[in-house]
Specification:
The complex is a heterodimer of chains A (337) and B (346).
Chain A: E1 11-22, E2 25-37, E3 42-46, H1 53-60, E4 68-70, E5 75-80, E6 83-86, H2 93-96, E7 104-107, H3 111-114, H4 121-132, H5 137-150, H6 156-159, H7 169-181, E8 187-191, H8 199-216, E9 219-224, H9 227-233, E10 236-241, E11 244-250, H10 251-256, H11 261-269, E12 318-322, E13 325-328
Parallel strand pairs in A: 3-9, 3-10, 7-8, 8-9
Antiparallel strand pairs in A: 1-2, 1-4, 1-5, 5-6, 10-11, 11-13, 12-13
Helix pairs in contact in A: 4-5, 5-7, 7-8
Chain B: E1 8-20, E2 31-43, E3 47-51, H1 58-65, E4 73-79, E5 84-86, H2 92-101, E6 102-105, H3 119-129, H4 136-149, H5 154-157, H6 166-178, E7 184-188, H7 196-213, E8 216-221, H8 224-230, E9 233-238, E10 241-247, H9 248-253, H10 258-265, H11 306-310, E11 316-319, E12 322-324, H12 329-336
Parallel strand pairs in B: 3-8, 3-9, 6-7, 7-8
Antiparallel strand pairs in B: 1-2, 1-4, 4-5, 9-10, 10-12, 11-12
Classes of the chains: A alpha/beta (337), B alpha/beta (346).
Chain lengths: 337, 346
C-alpha cells in the first residue's frame, strides 16, 4: 500500500508547463503537469521518449537550458522544515544551492558523463560535502569513504582516489548514488538510473536504492521508461505522454487495472517474461513529432477509443476512477467511477 | 531448387575470436578472448536468440558469422539449398556471394541511415553495390517489393530519413538488409533503441518476414523478455562461451545453468508483489582478458563448489535439445526454476 499523503507534501508541482524556444518556434515539452510527493514516498514517472519526464525532473532543480520558458502559472514548491521554497522564483544561483545537492540530489542515466573526468571520485564527493555541510575536509573524506562502503564498493579507502574511468559501469552508478546520498537529501531525483546497466547489475542497484530509501526515509522521484522497474520500485506512478500526465495512481492500481487507453496499450505492448505466449500488441501509429503536437487530447491520434469531435477538440481533465487513481480521458467520463 | 536443404543453416565448431591487447616489449601481450571455443547449430528458419550481459561476446559472435570479425580458430559452416561454404576460408568472390546470403540489421536506426540519401537509394544501395540487379527498372521493382513487405509506401521512398520516426527508420533499415534477399540475418539489438510502443511492431514485423521469406534470424539481445516472446531457440552466452542452449519454452520454464536462472530472475517483474524475491548475482562480469579457470562463471555462481574452480564443465545434453555446461545441473535444476511462475493450483 502507498503511504497515506500527510497534510504537507514534501514537493508540490502545480500546473507546470515548459516550452523551449527554437528556430522552429516554441515547442511544448511539458503541458500543465501537477503532482505531489510525500516525504519518504517513491513516485515513478514513466513515459516514452518525448513524454517530458526528464524535462520535468530537470525543472525541479532548474537544470533546463537557457531557451526554456516556464509558463507564469507554473509552481514548484519544496516544503522544508516549515519553509516553502518556490523553486521557480529563485533568482540567484546561490539561492538554488539550498535545493541543488542540498535538499534535493539527482542521479543521472550515464554516470560516466556525470562525473568530472579529471577529478578523483573522492575530490568530487568531498567538494559537495564542504559546500553543503559544515564538515571539515578530513570529516568529509571519512564520510565519503563510509558512503562508498555503504553502496557496496569494496576497498573504498583506495577506490576513493581513483577516477571515474577506472570504475566499471555498475560501480560508477553506485558511486553516483553514494555521492547523491551523502548530503542526506530529502528528495532524490533518479533519471533512468539503471537504464545503461545490465539486468543483473540493475537488480543490485535497485536493491541498494530500496534499502537506502527505507533507512534514510527520503523521497524519490524515479524516472524510467521501464514499467517493470516502476513495479519494483514505486509506491505511486504517473504515466506521461507528450508532456501530459495521462494516468496517476498507486502502482498496483495502475499496473493491474489501467484505465487510460495509453497505459493499457503500453502494458499490452510490453513483453511480459511471466507470460511469453501472450501476443505483443503494438500501440497503433507513431509518437507524433513535437513540432506537430496533436490538438485536444494528445493521444487521440493513436487511441483506440477516440471520440471524434471530442477528443481532437478539447483537452480532457483528470477523471477520478478510485481514491487517488486518476486518468485524463473523455472515454472514461461515461464509465461509472 | 535441388534436394531438401540441410536442417542446420549455420553451424559453429570451436569458434574463437581472440584479440591481442596492445603491444609489449617483453613477453606476449594479454589476449582478449571475446569468443572462446563456441560450438553451436542454428536450425534453418529458426528465430534463434543469443542473450548475455555486455562483454559476453554476443555481438562479436554475430559479426564473426558475417565475416566482420576475425576468426582466430574453429570453423563456421553455412549451408543453404545452393551452397555449403566454410565462411572463414571464403575468397573475395566467395565473400561477395556470401554477402547476398547473410546480412546484418543494425541496432541504432538513427546512426545506420545516411541522412543524404533518399529511402529508395538507401534500400537500393546494396543491390547496386553487389551488382544483384541488372537495370534500374529491376532495382526499383526489388526496392518496391521489399519496402511493401516492411510496410513502407511509395511516398516514403522519395523522402529522406530525417522525416521518419524511430520505428519507421528501423523498418527502412530492415528493408535494406533484406533487399538482397538474404536467407540468414543477424539482428543485433534491433529493438533496443526503440520505445516500448514501437518495439512490439518491429518484433511482429520480423516474425512475419521470417515466415514470408523463409529467413533464419540470429536475434542478439540483452532483453530476455523480448527473447522469450519471439525466439524458438535461445543460447545464453557468458564471457565468450555458450553456457546453455535450448528451446526457449523449456529454457524459460526450467533453466539448467545457474547463470541462466540468475539472468531470468533479474528481470524486473511487472508484479509489484514480486519485490526482492529474485535471486541475486554478486559482482560483475570479469574481463575477457582474464577468464577465470575451471568454470568461467564460478566467481559469481551462488552454488560454486571446489570442482568448479579447477575443472571446465563438459557440454552435455540434459533434456531433449537442451544443452548445458555445468557440473551440477541435475542437482541445481529445482533451485533454478523461476519463483514467479504462476501457481497452477491457484
Amino acid at each position: 500500500m502507498a503511504p497515506p499523503l500527510p497534510e504537507t507534501p514534501l514537493l508540490s508541482v502545480q500546473d507546470l508547463s515548459i516550452r523551449f524556444r527554437t528556430d522552429e518556434g516554441l515547442i511544448t515539452a511539458v503541458d500543465n503537469v501537477s503532482f505531489d510527493i510525500a516525504p519518504g514516498e517513491v513516485l515513478g514517472l514513466v513515459g516514452e521518449s518525448g513524454s517530458g519526464k526528464s524535462v520535468t525532473a530537470k525543472a525541479l532543480m532548474r537544470l533546463n537550458p537557457g531557451n526554456t520558458v516556464y509558463a507564469p502559472e507554473s509552481r514548484i514548491v519544496l516544503h522544508d522544515e516549515g519553509r516553502a521554497i518556490d523553486v521557480l522564483a529563485l533568482k540567484r544561483a546561490r539561492d538554488m544551492m539550498v535545493v541543488r545537492g542540498g535538499r534535493v540530489s539527482m542521479i543521472f542515466q550515464e554516470p560516466m558523463a556525470s562525473f568530472a573526468p579529471a577529478l578523483t571520485i573522492g575530490q568530487q564527493m568531498v567538494e559537495q560535502l564542504l559546500l553543503h555541510t559544515d564538515m571539515t575536509k578530513r570529516q568529509a573524506r571519512t564520510h565519503a569513504i563510509d558512503m562508498l562502503a555503504r553502496v557496496g564498493i569494496s576497498d573504498p579507502a583506495a577506490r576513493i582516489d581513483q577516477y571515474a574511468f577506472e570504475f566499471s559501469g555498475g560501480m560508477r552508478q553506485r558511486a553516483m548514488i553514494a555521492m547523491a546520498l551523502s548530503t542526506r537529501p530529502r528528495l532524490l531525483i533518479a533519471d533512468e538510473p539503471t537504464t545503461a546497466l545490465d539486468v543483473t547489475i540493475q537488480a543490485q542497484v535497485l536493491d541498494l536504492m530500496r534499502g537506502l530509501v527505507a533507512e534514510y526515509g527520503m523521497a524519490i522521484l524515479f524516472i524510467t521508461h521501464d514499467l517493470g522497474v516502476i513495479a519494483q520500485m514505486a509506491d505511486r506512478v504517473a504515466v506521461m505522454y507528450l508532456g501530459r500526465v495521462a494516468e496517476t495512481g498507486a502502482v498496483r492500481q495502475v499496473i493491474r487495472t489501467p484505465v487510460h487507453p495509453y497505459t493499457a496499450d503500453l502494458l499490452n505492448a510490453l513483453p511480459n517474461v511471466n507470460d511469453p505466449d501472450a501476443p505483443l500488441t503494438p500501440v497503433a501509429g507513431d509518437i507524433p513529432s513535437p513540432l506537430d503536437r496533436p490538438t485536444g487530447c494528445v493521444f487521440h491520434t493513436r487511441c483506440p477509443r477516440m471520440i471524434p469531435g471530442t477528443c481532437d477538440a478539447a483537452v480532457p481533465s483528470a477523471h477520478v476512477v478510485a481514491p487517488g487513481h486518476m486518468a485524463a480521458c473523455f472515454a472514461l467520463a461515461g464509465v461509472p467511477a | 531448387m535441388s534436394t531438401a536443404p540441410h536442417p542446420i543453416h549455420v553451424s559453429l565448431d570451436g569458434l574463437s575470436v581472440h584479440y591481442a591487447l596492445g603491444r609489449t616489449l617483453f613477453g606476449t601481450p594479454p589476449t582478449v578472448r571475446a569468443v572462446d571455443g563456441v560450438s553451436l547449430d542454428i536450425p534453418r528458419n529458426s528465430f534463434f536468440g543469443l542473450v548475455g550481459e555486455s562483454g559476453s561476446g554476443k555481438t562479436t559472435l554475430g559479426r564473426a558469422i558475417l565475416r566482420a570479425a576475425p576468426v582466430s580458430a574453429g570453423r563456421i559452416t553455412y549451408r543453404d539449398a545452393e551452397v555449403e561454404v566454410d565462411v572463414g576460408a571464403l575468397d573475395k568472390a566467395g565473400l561477395r556471394d556470401y554477402r547476398t546470403r547473410a546480412q546484418l540489421i543494425f541496432q541504432d536506426p538513427y546512426a545506420a541511415l545516411s541522412p543524404r540519401m533518399t529511402v529508395r537509394d538507401i534500400i537500393a544501395e546494396p543491390l547496386e553495390v553487389m551488382k544483384i540487379t541488372k537495370s534500374r527498372e529491376e532495382t526499383d521493382e526489388r526496392v518496391r517489393d521489399i519496402a511493401a513487405r516492411c510496410r513502407l509506401n511509395l511516398e516514403h521512398l522519395r523522402r529522406f530519413p530525417h522525416a521518419f520516426s524511430g520505428g519507421q527508420r528501423q523498418r527502412i533499415s530492415i528493408a535494406r538488409a533484406l533487399a538482397a534477399r538474404p536467407r540468414f540475418v543477424v539482428a543485433d539489438e534491433s529493438v533496443a533503441a526503440l520505445d516500448v510502443s514501437i518495439q512490439a511492431d518491429i518484433l511482429n514485423l520480423l516474425k512475419t518476414l521470417r515466415e514470408e521469406l523463409g529467413l533464419t534470424i540470429l536475434f542478439i539481445s540483452h532483453d530476455l523478455s523480448v527473447v522469450a516472446h519471439v525466439c524458438d531457440m535461445v543460447a545464453v552466452m557468458y564471457l565468450g562461451a555458450i553456457v546453455e542452449v535450448g528451446p526457449s519454452r523449456r529454457l524459460f520454464a526450467q533453466p539448467r545453468h545457474p547463470y541462466t536462472g540468475a539472468l531470468f530472475s533479474a528481470i524486473p517483474s511487472l508484479d509489484p508483489d514480486d519485490r526482492g524475491r529474485a535471486q541475486r548475482l554478486e559482482g560483475e562480469i570479469p574481463s575477457p582478458a582474464n577468464v577465470p579457470p575451471g568454470c568461467r562463471f564460478h566467481t559469481r555462481c551462488p552454488f560454486v563448489q571446489d570442482r568448479c574452480r579447477s575443472e571446465v564443465p563438459a557440454w552435455r545434453e540434459v533434456a531433449p535439445q537442451q544443452h548445458v555446461a555445468c557440473h551440477f545441473s541435475e542437482e541445481l535444476a529445482p533451485r533454478l526454476t523461476r519463483t514467479r511462475q504462476p501457481d497452477p493450483a491457484a
